[in-house]
Amino acid sequence: MTEKNSKPNITASLSPSLLQLYDVSSSIVVIIDVLRATSTIAAALYNGAKSIIPVDSVADCIKLGKQMDVITAGERDGQIAEGLKYGNTPFQYTPKFIKGKTLVLTTTNGTKLLHMALTEGAKGIITASFCNISAVCDYLVREKKNVILACAGWKDRLNIEDTLLAGAIINRVKDHFYQNCDSCQISESLYMLAKDDLFNFMKEKNASHYHRLMGFDLEEDIRYCLTEDNANILCLYDGGRLIAG
Amino acid sequence: MTEKNSKPNITASLSPSLLQLYDVSSSIVVIIDVLRATSTIAAALYNGAKSIIPVDSVADCIKLGKQMDVITAGERDGQIAEGLKYGNTPFQYTPKFIKGKTLVLTTTNGTKLLHMALTEGAKGIITASFCNISAVCDYLVREKKNVILACAGWKDRLNIEDTLLAGAIINRVKDHFYQNCDSCQISESLYMLAKDDLFNFMKEKNASHYHRLMGFDLEEDIRYCLTEDNANILCLYDGGRLIAG
After folding, report:
1. What ipTM score was computed for the predicted complex, to two decimals?
2. In chain B, what residues touch A208 (CB-CB under 8 Å)?
3. Which of A35, A125, B95, B205 meets the CB 3.0–4.6 Å disulfide criterion with A185?
4. Global confidence as pTM
5. B96 burial level (CB within 10 Å; 0-12, 13-18, 19+)
6. CA B203 → CA A167, A233, B121, B160, B227, distances in Å?
7. How far is CA A106 from the centre of its chain?
8. Gap between the Cα atoms of A111 and A55, Å rounded
9. Up-side HSE of residue A43: CA atoms within 13 Å toward CB?
């Protein structure tokens, strides 16, 4: 444990159901949805998307698509949602496809969690993935504010990949924060076990979401989403949109 | 993952806030509150207590104490609750003190969780600690029913010690159950890291509850609660009371 008074606090909320236990209004909330929302967000902004509007229902996504010149995309249960044209695979959002465009995105877990953080009055919101982990860590260290690592999980259950990313972030930034949080310790311990080969760890542990996406033939998506810094850009929520920070 | 159809299901709920996500009414719920409620329960029943009535408020505990010939005990935030004579240390419940007696017990997290499981219509309820881990695992294997390992945590946050016990139970019984639960995998991974020296792991990770109890000079309590099978008895909830099974 580091000295309490000289450093900001870091905690991890491993499921959206737990977010309310933490002091959201005094913290930067880091939204984590590794497979695949926050990885796709990083890829789209890295490849030049003007902004991303996260919405929490498919209906709102379709509605915005009719009102504005945007790309509408989203998934439910790992597949493209009915009524939407594009899904939640980072490979969709190439520079050619997304540069200068606005994306309206809804996902099963990640976008809902972002709206929870907003409703609870978060001081700041960013999204994090392995794809942009360095940008995220640099930002958190620079800002010197309290941090809540908020995992989206799967329908309010914990999942391995989001816990791993929370652990990876803690492992990188812990010297700059005060930490008195068992969930942080659990996450970092898990990450230390897995870090040499995240994909293989997911496979060995038969992570539920690994299994689900492999069933849709999405191995390349999983590998992309577990690669550090392949879309290393800060994804900052500001005025209803995620923008490159 | 084992074959789905031939074996009962095992899952882990790492916080009381998550219990509602699981199918409580078709499962045996295993209440886990290592420091110290479920360890104290095991010690008291092992040492001959007639039964233990778990109640979720200090007021109810005091009220029952006036109506019946019982020992009232409980803690809030790690210390003896105001108005109650005895606390939550397993060392209190020696054979001389507890044999043939009924104990009415209320604790910060564990007894509340037990009442949640009851309200949700659990098919069966037992309490588990490292102190009675073998009796718990033998029972679960023998019963061949779905199991939810329900961790009490600390005020709805995860804690390391309850997660470790969930992992230890999974590690012992997993061949007998179907498992598709990331929380189980996270728990078992943590346990495998810690198992050679649970006390030292808690110390190294500066587990929040380790820190809290050490502040009350309760190292011996912690060591007792992390010892396998030192009060190896099945603690079965039946008709409002916990009894030796």
Report:
1. 0.94
2. 180-182
3. B205
4. 0.95
5. exposed
6. 19, 37, 37, 11, 15
7. 13
8. 6
9. 23
